């Protein structure tokens, strides 16, 4: 498989975004730290061939240490048209601003890669949530690193990372509400550093060997058992499942424990991998956990396009636009 090398466009402009959810503090503190480091570099006037744009996505929610003020910012990036009213939700207004800074979405001027930093209260380690499959060469030292794929090919993507030409979310946990834990913060910092190193090495023309990578594809969400009248939850995640993200769940395995002490079992007909188990922010979305199928995917060797290939691409893009 490594005989064919796939050539991809250069990635000269990368954006690292934190605070898209204002209470996910690792990303907030990391972007602030990178902004400080950036200022030092600029004072020394060092030439940096890669442009890295640092963005604090939802300042108002960060100030209040809340996920969002009016509505989930990370669901606002669908193709919206027309003027917005003055009393529009804050996040709608902010999403337009971010679309202008990082995008516009679907436009050749958009940044090449958006890395959006999140964290989860679930015990998931470091995860890359992708719309396409790729992989970073190096493994992280202490944290398990995984790839999750949400198939959105038939739906319009709505997340911040969809504004760039390419994008992904880095999700890391467990870390509770409004808390920063140094192990999680450090793992995220190392993850971002790896990603930026990878882009620099890629842009410089190095060939990355192909190979296999395990990808978790989201199949479905499962809600908590609820009272049919009040809609209140009647059970919590079973202790045998709590914190066991990415451990195979078999049909008839315990899944929930009701508040009266009864065990409820997984009724699916195939074993699947649970993740986002008991994510705090997903109670309001009606998600107790998500289930994924694991696939092994072959990744071809990749290399950056030559100058000529890039020129040819630009022309192709321009003629598509005219159509
Ligand atoms: C982003 O901006 C472009 C150009 O102004 C517009 O066409 C598009 O609908 C905007 N998308 C969002 C999500 O705001
Ligand atoms: C359902 O939940 C609401 C809000 O948390 C609470 O006020 C109410 O008492 C609950 N109802 C029952 C029957 O437990
Ligand atoms: C997925 C998600 O939104 N995760 C959580 C990250 O951590 C913060 C607190 O630091 C939670 O509030 C989020 O819900
Ligand atoms: Zn988040």
Automatic annotation (TrEMBL):
<keyword id="KW-0472">Membrane</keyword>
<keyword id="KW-1003">Cell membrane</keyword>
<feature type="binding site">
    <location>
        <position position="118"/>
    </location>
    <ligand>
        <name>Zn(2+)</name>
    </ligand>
</feature>
<feature type="domain" description="AstE/AspA barrel-sandwich hybrid">
    <location>
        <begin position="213"/>
        <end position="294"/>
    </location>
</feature>
<dbReference type="GO" id="GO:0016324">
    <property type="term" value="C:apical plasma membrane"/>
</dbReference>
<dbReference type="GO" id="GO:0005829">
    <property type="term" value="C:cytosol"/>
</dbReference>
<dbReference type="InterPro" id="IPR016708">
    <property type="entry name" value="Aspartoacylase"/>
</dbReference>
<dbReference type="Pfam" id="PF24827">
    <property type="entry name" value="AstE_AspA_cat"/>
</dbReference>
<keyword id="KW-0479">Metal-binding</keyword>
<feature type="binding site">
    <location>
        <position position="24"/>
    </location>
    <ligand>
        <name>Zn(2+)</name>
    </ligand>
</feature>
<dbReference type="GO" id="GO:0046872">
    <property type="term" value="F:metal ion binding"/>
</dbReference>
<dbReference type="InterPro" id="IPR007036">
    <property type="entry name" value="Aste_AspA_hybrid_dom"/>
</dbReference>
<feature type="domain" description="Succinylglutamate desuccinylase/Aspartoacylase catalytic">
    <location>
        <begin position="11"/>
        <end position="197"/>
    </location>
</feature>
<dbReference type="GO" id="GO:0004046">
    <property type="term" value="F:aminoacylase activity"/>
</dbReference>
<dbReference type="GO" id="GO:0016788">
    <property type="term" value="F:hydrolase activity, acting on ester bonds"/>
</dbReference>
<comment type="similarity">
    <text>Belongs to the AspA/AstE family. Aspartoacylase subfamily.</text>
</comment>
<dbReference type="Pfam" id="PF04952">
    <property type="entry name" value="AstE_AspA_hybrid"/>
</dbReference>
<keyword id="KW-0862">Zinc</keyword>
<dbReference type="InterPro" id="IPR050178">
    <property type="entry name" value="AspA/AstE_fam"/>
</dbReference>
<keyword id="KW-0378">Hydrolase</keyword>
<feature type="binding site">
    <location>
        <position position="21"/>
    </location>
    <ligand>
        <name>Zn(2+)</name>
    </ligand>
</feature>
<keyword id="KW-0963">Cytoplasm</keyword>
<feature type="active site" description="Proton donor/acceptor">
    <location>
        <position position="171"/>
    </location>
</feature>
<protein>
    <recommendedName>
        <fullName>N-acyl-aromatic-L-amino acid amidohydrolase</fullName>
        <ecNumber>3.5.1.114</ecNumber>
    </recommendedName>
</protein>
<dbReference type="InterPro" id="IPR055438">
    <property type="entry name" value="AstE_AspA_cat"/>
</dbReference>
């Amino acid at each position: 498989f490594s005989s064919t090398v796939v050539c991809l466009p250069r990635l000269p402009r990368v954006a690292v975004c934190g605070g898209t959810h204002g209470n996910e503090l690792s990303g907030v503190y990391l972007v602030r730290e990178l902004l400080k480091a950036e200022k030092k570099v600029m004072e020394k006037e060092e030439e940096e061939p890669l442009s890295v744009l640092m963005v604090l996505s939802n300042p108002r929610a960060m100030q209040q240490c809340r996920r969002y003020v009016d509505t989930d910012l990370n669901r606002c990036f669908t193709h919206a048209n027309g003027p917005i009213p003055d009393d529009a939700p804050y996040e709608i207004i902010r999403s337009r601003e971010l679309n202008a800074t990082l995008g516009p979405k679907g436009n050749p001027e958009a940044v090449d890669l958006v890395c959006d930093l999140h964290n989860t209260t679930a015990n998931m380690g470091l995860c890359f949530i992708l719309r396409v499959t790729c992989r970073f060469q190096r493994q992280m030292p202490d944290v398990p690193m995984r790839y999750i794929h949400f198939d959105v090919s038939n739906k319009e993507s709505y997340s911040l990372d969809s504004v760039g030409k390419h994008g992904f979310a880095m999700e890391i946990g467990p870390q509770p509400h409004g808390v920063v834990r140094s192990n999680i913060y450090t793992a995220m910092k190392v993850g971002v550093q790896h990603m930026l190193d990878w882009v620099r090495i890629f842009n410089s023309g190095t060939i990355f060997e192909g190979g296999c990578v395990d990808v978790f594809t989201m199949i479905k969400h499962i809600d908590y058992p609820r009272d049919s009248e009040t809609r209140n939850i009647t059970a919590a995640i079973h202790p045998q499942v709590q914190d066991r993200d990415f451990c195979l769940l078999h049909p008839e395995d315990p899944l929930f424990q009701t508040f009266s002490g009864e065990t409820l079992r997984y009724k699916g007909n195939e074993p699947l991998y649970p993740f986002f188990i008991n994510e705090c922010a997903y109670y309001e979305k009606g998600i107790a956990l998500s289930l994924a199928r694991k696939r092994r995917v072959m990744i071809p060797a990749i290399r950056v396009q030559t100058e000529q290939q890039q020129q040819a691409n630009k022309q192709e893009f321009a003629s598509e636009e005219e159509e």
